[in-house]
Design a protein that fits this description.
The protein is of the alpha+beta class. Helix content is 17%, strand content 33%. It has 11 helices and 24 strands. A 6-stranded mixed sheet has the order 6-7-5-8-9-10, with helices on both faces. A 6-stranded antiparallel beta barrel has the order 11-12-17-15-14-18. A 6-stranded antiparallel beta barrel has the order 19-22-21-20-23-24. The longest helix is centred in the middle third of the chain and has 18 residues.
Length: 553
């Protein structure tokens, strides 16, 4: 048994509860944002609800076509997903599924193990949910009795092979259609690290939800199907492999594990090096053009998500002649962590909010700084706040949390109606910038056939950290010379086309909490989308001074 398997801690699975339900039809041709975010009444894992399983069980583990028995002590609370509500201010019944996890012994001290949030991305049907579920299964987070329930549900739906995906896909609609809609969330740990697992939807209709998941991640896991035809469908125009990779890089994911899934499929085979090389030969040039350093930032790992091969333990010698590297979970333990500032100004972009027991809880990821019980925090742009009255991760109450942690906080003097996704929690003494006008450097990745140019007046939707806001291009300042990376000389450009890079002044319909890329890279990167496609990526260069005109600076 590997060290990772032996030391996997018992952690609860919480799929689907965090991410707001989004109707994702983006259109800005009339200046109206077509995406509407309807936050669910998100609640943490039930303490007593659903089916609680806590005992030593023997769960079958499939590895390299040989079934062995792994005995682990695990705890899983299986609850029905909380009812979705469009109003987080509604008073809710204090039922078993709406409980905030509270430690019976009070807040726990800071866990010194590194924490990493990983997001599974890729084209629909590549196997993301199955791999995420298999990861939890193999690390001891799901026991045999829980799996029996998932298998029964899958069989009843005549989707027998989807039972592992149902660990993450808990919504009835998702299970019936086999498509992830919201970002599933779960947790596991090894002796070396603690992990938050984010399972992002792969269908193009739910890209805004996927963006919300990637905004919380430190590491991207791009799942590729090796099956003949499936890789091509995901990678060619219209597939989500390309767009997901671009969005991941833009949103701050600098390391990518590429899981080449379904290697056991009949049309592929573990010994099919030609297919392995073909996938890399097509994917590498694209990833390189997106900004990834292939040698340092991209790691390829062949797996079978359904059978669990090369997931926890390495492949047996001879199974895959051209690969003798680490398994997927071994790779997760050795990937470098992103650089984080634990001593700088606190920045927590708000992802969601919910009420429980008359108390308001706010959820988000700490991008910089450290937060402790008793700190005085403010929510911007509304400038409401006070002392922290609750602090915790997704699984436990804590005394202190650092950068990279996904946290829940309750802050005095905050009102549900004045808090929304994209707002920012900061130290009272070090507020963030709240602006509606700024200068950006924009690279145009794609344009709509009926809108082939970007010029002054172009309207689209800005995605930056967890915020989403309508945006208008006010003025094009200069084109960027692709050879030098510096502004080109000559007259100011009138427009920019696909493949061009431009410095521009933009204005948002409402003030947003942002920083310059130079000061806070993770809060200064953005993506532009229009009518359901990603049209551009970029970074904030300068912020307009209060009272300055849209084209000033």
């Amino acid at each position: 048994m590997s060290e990772a398997e032996a030391s996997a801690a018992s952690v609860s699975t919480q799929a689907q509860e965090q991410q707001p339900t989004t109707t994702s039809t983006e259109s800005s041709s009339t200046g109206t944002q077509g995406e509407t975010s309807t936050p669910p009444a998100a609640v943490p894992q039930a303490e007593n609800g659903g089916v609680t399983i806590s005992d030593s069980t023997s769960a079958p583990v499939s590895n390299n076509n040989t079934t062995t028995t792994s005995t682990t002590t695990s705890t899983l609370t299986v609850s029905s997903p909380p009812a979705k509500s469009s109003n987080a201010d509604d008073d809710e019944e204090d039922d078993a599924e709406g409980q905030v996890i509270k430690s019976s012994t009070g807040p726990k001290p800071k866990d010194d193990r590194d924490h990493m949030s990983i997001v599974f991305i890729g084209h629909v049907d590549a196997g993301k949910s199955t791999i995420a579920g298999q990861t939890l299964l193999l690390t001891g987070q799901v026991d045999a009795r829980a799996m029996e329930k998932f298998e029964k549900v899958a069989k009843d739906l005549k989707r027998d092979s989807w039972y592992i995906a149902f660990i993450m896909d808990t919504d009835d609609e998702e299970r019936a259609k086999g498509k992830t809609v919201e970002v599933g969330r779960a947790y596991f740990s090894t002796a070396k690290r603690r992990f938050t697992v984010l399972d992002a939807p792969g269908h193009k209709s739910y890209v805004p939800n996927m963006i919300g998941g990637v905004a919380q991640a430190d590491l991207g896991v791009l799942v590729i199907s090796a099956r003949k035809g499936e890789f091509e469908t995901g990678f060619e125009r219209g597939g989500q492999t390309r767009e997901h990779a671009v969005l991941a890089k833009t949103l701050g994911v600098n390391t990518l594990i590429v899981l080449v899934n379904k290697m056991d499929e009949k049309s592929v085979g573990w010994d099919n090096k030609a297919r392995w090389d073909e996938i890399q030969s097509k994917l590498n040039p694209f990833l390189r053009s997106t900004g990834f350093n292939i040698a340092k930032q991209v790691i390829y790992v062949p797996v079978s998500g359904l059978k669990g091969m090369n997931m926890l333990t390495r492949l047996e010698p001879g199974v895959c002649p051209f690969y003798n590297g680490p398994s997927f979970i071994e790779t997760l333990e050795t990937v470098p962590l992103p650089k984080r500032s634990a001593t700088g100004a606190l920045r927590i972009p708000i992802l969601d909010k919910f009420r429980e027991g008359g108390k308001l809880y706010i959820q988000g990821k700490i991008e910089a700084g450290t937060v402790k019980y008793g700190d005085r925090l403010m929510v911007y742009p509304n400038k409401e706040g006070g002392e922290i009255t609750y602090l915790g991760t997704d699984t436990e109450e804590r005394e202190e949390c650092g950068p990279g942690e996904n946290v829940k906080v309750s802050i005095q003097n905050t009102r549900p109606e004045s808090i929304t996704q994209g707002f920012m929690i900061c130290n009272e003494s070090h507020p963030c910038n709240v602006v509606s006008k700024f200068e950006v450097q924009l690279y145009v990745t794609e344009l709509l056939p009926h809108k082939p140019l970007i010029s002054a007046g172009y309207q689209c939707v800005l995605h930056i950290h967890t915020a989403r806001e309508e945006m208008t291009v006010v003025k094009l300042v200069s084109l960027i010379d692709p050879k030098t990376g510096k502004p080109a000389t000559g007259p100011k450009p009138q427009y920019v086309q696909k493949g061009g890079t431009v410095v521009a002044h933009v204005v948002t319909s409402q003030p947003v909490c942002v920083e310059t890329y130079k000061d806070f890279p993770q809060l200064g990167r953005f993506t532009l989308r229009d009518e359901g496609i990603t049209i551009g990526i970029g970074k904030i260069l300068r912020l307009a001074k209060p009272g300055a005109g849209a084209s000033s600076g």
